[in-house]
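Today's session is about reading a structure prediction critically. Students often jump straight to the picture, but the first step is always the sequence itself: look for stretches that repeat, for charged clusters, for runs of hydrophobic residues. Only then move on to the predicted structure, which in these notes is written as discrete structure tokens rather than atom positions. Here is the chain we will use throughout the hour.
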Amino acid sequence: MNPETRYCNACGHAVEFRIPADDHLPRHICPSCGHVQYHNPKVIVGVIPEWQDGRILMCRRNIEPRFGLWTFPAGFMEMNETSAAGAAREAREESLAEVDVDTLLMVINVPYVSQVYMIHCGRMLTDHHGPTPESSEVVLMREDEIPWDEIAFPTIWHSLKHFFADRANNRQFVTHTLDLTYKPRAPQLPEVPGDDPSA
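Below is the predicted structure for this chain, in token form.
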């Protein structure tokens, strides 16, 4: 049982954790009003912002988890927004950049933390960017400047690898899918076939 789910969010009665009729998984059920509370995976949206000279915008995390490591703007999708709108919002919140969000580059399933990542390509509308409460540094980087050994999450590492590979292939950006079904042991990151995570 999820320790945070103790009471019904409809009537306030203490819930039970059992399999409802005609279901196959245990749920949080209110024995008083019958309301069932479902817990579903979280969606993370992000964007790889590219400036007109080919550099991309990277942020050094100023918050946990993975404080001090590098990422591009990404975070939890909010209610009533598209993945592209959420990615643009995250870019503003984490880097102060205004980004035109474009192609969906990656869909990454991470079942061990019940998350789904939707990562877009994006074009910076101006070169304005800077640190925020969430990012201690915000830097435009060439591909050879990416700190591959200091990337915050495997999802970010894989997305960057696919971005640069597609860009090198005449900018033929396509949507890649990936299942990260096991939790990597830090600081190692899982490999993409044919890629060297230490490169």
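Discussion point for the tutorial: The first helix runs from residue 83 to 95.
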